[in-house]
Each structure stands twice: as C-alpha cells, then as structure tokens.
C-alpha cells in the first residue's frame, strides 16, 4: 500500500497494491495498521456507498461541523470520478484551496480527507459508485455544504453548470465567502 502526500497538508492519496494473475487481481483496500502509520490515530465508524447513474452527476461539496466533523477515506469501486477536497481550516495556509484527483475502479486509488475539508465529486462516466469510510456518524444537525461551482474556489469541473446533475440542496449551498468560520 502506497501513501502519497498531496499539496494540501493532511490529504493523502492511497494506492493499494494489486496482486494479479490470469484470474484477475486481489487487493487489500484497507489495513488499519498501515493507514494509522500514515494518517494518524484514525478510527472509522461508518461505511457509506453512493451510486450515480448519469455522467456529469455532482455530489457535494459536503462536510459536517464539530463536534461531529468527519474524516473520509474515499474510493471508486465502479466507474470513474473527479474527486475534490476543499480546505476549510481558517488557520491553514491553504484555506479555500482545493485538490482534485481522479478515482476509478481501474486505478484503485483512494483519497484520505481529514475533518476540516469539504468533499465532493463529479462522475466522469455513467454508473459510478463511491464507497467511503467515515470517522463519525452522519448528523443532520451538523451537516453543511459549500456551493460546488463557487467561482472563488476555481475548481475546474468536467461539466458545465447547466449540464450538471445536482440535488436541489447542492444547487443552493452557500459560497465560501458566505460560510463564515467553520474550522480553526
């Protein structure tokens, strides 16, 4: 299992090793001992999975407030997505900055997103599934979002706003400037 640090502190790109032969391949997609060595004392409590039928589906940008903030280990076991993490930590030198990573069934990569970040993705093909382990339970009272196409974020989404498939909730999220302090 390979762990790669990214441009924004705290984010990790995780690439599990695949052992293959004529039958296909086998992979350990998560090992607590190796993950803790790379990311710290992390404990997962919930495993989520989403399915998005059409290409151009955007989900996010989502996060939960303290004390129910969630870290997420995200992977794409079916299809291909552009995954996005936005730094919402006010004291961070990369506050408001983002990274994008392509996650796919083919590349097997995963993205570790600690609490203090908003997370979202856009499907790059039809019939995509995302699976993610989270460090706290879903809490509707602490659930928040950030407008996916806020110009201040500068995210190069692979879909035009009018063609994006979004929930009503995600179309109405506030901009970064309207959020106010979320995380220290």
From TrEMBL:
Listed GO MF terms: dTDP-4-dehydrorhamnose 3,5-epimerase activity
InterPro entries for the chain: RmlC-like, RmlC-like_jellyroll, RmlC_Cupin_sf
Biological pathway: Carbohydrate biosynthesis; dTDP-L-rhamnose biosynthesis
Entry EC no(s): 5.1.3.13
Keywords from the named record: Isomerase
Record field: catalytic activity: dTDP-4-dehydro-6-deoxy-alpha-D-glucose = dTDP-4-dehydro-beta-L-rhamnose
Isomerase as UniProt keyword: yes
NCBIfam families: rmlC (TIGR01221)
Function statement: Catalyzes the epimerization of the C3' and C5'positions of dTDP-6-deoxy-D-xylo-4-hexulose, forming dTDP-6-deoxy-L-lyxo-4-hexulose.
Subunit structure, interactors included: Homodimer.
PANTHER family the record matches: DTDP-6-DEOXY-D-GLUCOSE-3,5 EPIMERASE (PTHR21047), THYMIDINE DIPHOSPHO-4-KETO-RHAMNOSE 3,5-EPIMERASE (PTHR21047:SF2)
Record-given protein name: dTDP-4-dehydrorhamnose 3,5-epimerase
């Amino acid at each position: 299992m390979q762990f790669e640090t990214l441009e924004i502190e705290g984010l990790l790109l995780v690439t599990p090793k695949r052992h293959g032969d004529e039958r296909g391949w086998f992979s350990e997609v998560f090992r607590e001992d190796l993950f803790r060595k790379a990311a710290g004392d992390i404990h997962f409590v919930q495993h989520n999975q989403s399915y998005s039928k059409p290409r151009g589906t955007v989900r996010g940008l989502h996060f939960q407030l303290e004390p129910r903030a969630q870290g997420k280990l995200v992977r794409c076991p079916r299809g291909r997505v552009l995954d996005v993490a936005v730094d919402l930590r006010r004291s961070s030198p990369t506050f408001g900055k983002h990274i994008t990573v392509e996650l796919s069934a083919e590349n097997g990569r995963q993205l570790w997103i600690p609490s203090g970040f908003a997370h979202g993705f856009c499907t790059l093909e039809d019939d995509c599934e995302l699976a993610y382990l989270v460090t706290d339970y879903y809490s509707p009272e602490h659930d928040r979002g950030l407008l996916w196409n806020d110009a201040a974020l500068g995210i190069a989404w692979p879909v035009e706003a009018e063609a994006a498939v979004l929930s009503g909730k995600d179309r109405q999220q506030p901009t970064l400037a309207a959020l106010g302090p979320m995380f220290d």
